[in-house]
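Dear Dr. V.,

Thank you for agreeing to look over these. As mentioned in my earlier message, I'm a first-year student in the group and I'm still getting used to reading structure tokens, so any feedback on how I've presented them would be very welcome. I ran two proteins. I've put each sequence directly above its structure. The first is here:
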Amino acid sequence: MATPIVANPAVRPMPKRRSPGEHGVLDGDMIEKAAAQAAAEVLGPPEDPDDVPFLDESMLPEVVTELVATSDEQRDQLGRLATRVESLDEAFQALEESLTERVNLARPSRWTWEFLTQDETAQLWRETRWFVDYLIRRYPLISEVSIPPCWYRHSVAVDELSDLYAAWREAYCSSSRPSTAMTAWRDRWLWPALNRLATYATWRECKETRRHVEPAARQDLTDDDFDRFVEANIAKRPRARSGVMPWPTKPSGKEGSVRGGIASARADARLAE
């Protein structure tokens, strides 16, 4: 006989096994398993494995209902966890794409004038003009470093000013929190850029005449001998990288030590030549 559980009036001692006829259409093993599971959830596992509590068969529908509710609750929890996992997976993919884009040196950015489309070029021209006009209004510059109205005709100035604008965006538009990047933008980017333009933008005559003057000094593009020179330079080089370096290399094991010694000796001999 099983030990009765007094804490719950619905629980009474029952024989460990009953014939199927005593339960009518209910199977005795099924009743015992369901009752044991419900009792274990409420009371915890019994100290003696033989002292398994049994419920009155009249309580079985209530037990089954409770088990179904528990199952539904667990299903809901699994659904919420699946949603969170899916959200985390999307966030991870976005982060991975962002990092990949940052290190993808084969893809020109929107600041690279040479490779922009028509729409991208129009957008960057609008933004750069806004920034230059803002800069002129905000910083009344002395004539030595001032920016003439024809700045957009000087390609050196276009690159310098659009890059300066990109640095300004990073300093002032990436966060609302106070940052030393705002001061660093002037010290590190603004004043050095204006001084470089005063030296290299070739717009001195533009300022003096207050109209655009094409610079007298012009540079020619790379000459036609480039291809022949490069082909000859490539032909002189080895097809495979040599393992012999003019500096000591770290040996790997006994064999590496011997090879490293030979390589070092060969390198020393070559340097001596």
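The second protein is here, in the same arrangement:
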Amino acid sequence: MAFTNGEGPTAGAWPLGQDARGVLQGNPVQDVGWQAPSEVERQLYEAKLRDNWAGYFDVLARTYLYFIESRSWKDAHPGRVHFSPYWNPQLQAKCLALYTEGMLPAPDGGDLVFSSNYLEWFAEVWPESRGQWIAVNPGSPCEAYFPTTPEHRALWQRHTAPVEGSPDRQRALRALSVGGPLQGPVAFGLACGAPLMVNNRELWNAMAYHGTGYSDERKSLARWWGITDRAGWQDAQHRLLNADMVSSVWEFALGVRRSLALDFAGPVEVDYWKQVAGRAIRQKAEARAAEVRVSPEGVTKADPVDETEVAAQVAGVQRLIGRIARYEARFRADGLLAEGRFVRTVEAWDYGRASCMARWGLAARYGTLEEAEQAVVRAGRMVAANYRSWEDFAASFILGRCLHFDDEDFGKWYEEMVTVHRILTTDPASPWLNIPWK
């Protein structure tokens, strides 16, 4: 990772008090009854109140720390990092401002963007010329200032070592208690993306979303979606909101069973489901072959049925039906689907991703906050119109994700969703337990 020198925006300066070791400086500590934006800032604030700086470092070690960069510079220098320290007159030294996620401003169309990493990364890569202090959340009640000498960076690393790979960095329900909606149409739409946000240990209700930083979000969209510009993001957002990315074959197979279930008012045997799906494919092929086409050359019939192709389509759909049935059986065993229930459609896979895509595009600056919020609300409306409950939505979303990624391995892609589902259906703070179904 390459670094450059530069001066950045000047943060304010505040009265500083130094502890006996000279390790930390910050505002005089007093309990002002501050309502922190998220759990991270609350824990930092409480550690500071108790003069528990080891605990303060432990919290820092478990969370991403964000720093300001210039968007135009990042676009011109991909893969490089530009630290911009400010001059602190009280310290008579340069400080690099680092922010926790709950302290970030809403993304806008300006030149300032954020990058992030963990504390151990800063300890490892810190260039000696880039300032003598770091300032954590400067100007807030949980602010703190730390020297950046090799000895002090070694101290940071001693606090980061125990949390490498610990549960603190695994999937969890996280939310903004200040600055993020907890009720209403926007919150409902954000909750539709909660499975992926919880899986990634991100704030589920952060509408003003930065992800892990401007460059990282752009790389992620390019890698996973092939999106490299605003037009690509708009196209993906449109298709997801119209459930146009989910496989039409999956929807065909589920639609056959849905129709049979309505006809028989009850469960549908898998073998019968396969038979009816096969007949439907053959009937469609025969109907296409019987079509009459009118062209300048005259009236002609369509090409005859290709029996080999039709047989392959039938076999493929019947294999898919077997996969769906086995996934649903596993869902029931793991508590993702109630006995006697089945998945009617996997369009939730698109709607849930649409909620997240709105925020991913905002973090990458392919869209505005207003556009992202409109897309999130629309995703929520589509979910409410097509599903009966959070449980119904969840099973549909998870089946779509498994059909897309898991290939019936019941491995990482599946186990992640089992964990996420349990969190979202049992945690008292879960949006699925607190936002009423529309």
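From my reading of the second output: Confidence is low (pLDDT under 50) at residues 1-23. Residues 248-256+265-326 form one domain. Does that match how you would interpret it?

Kind regards,
E.
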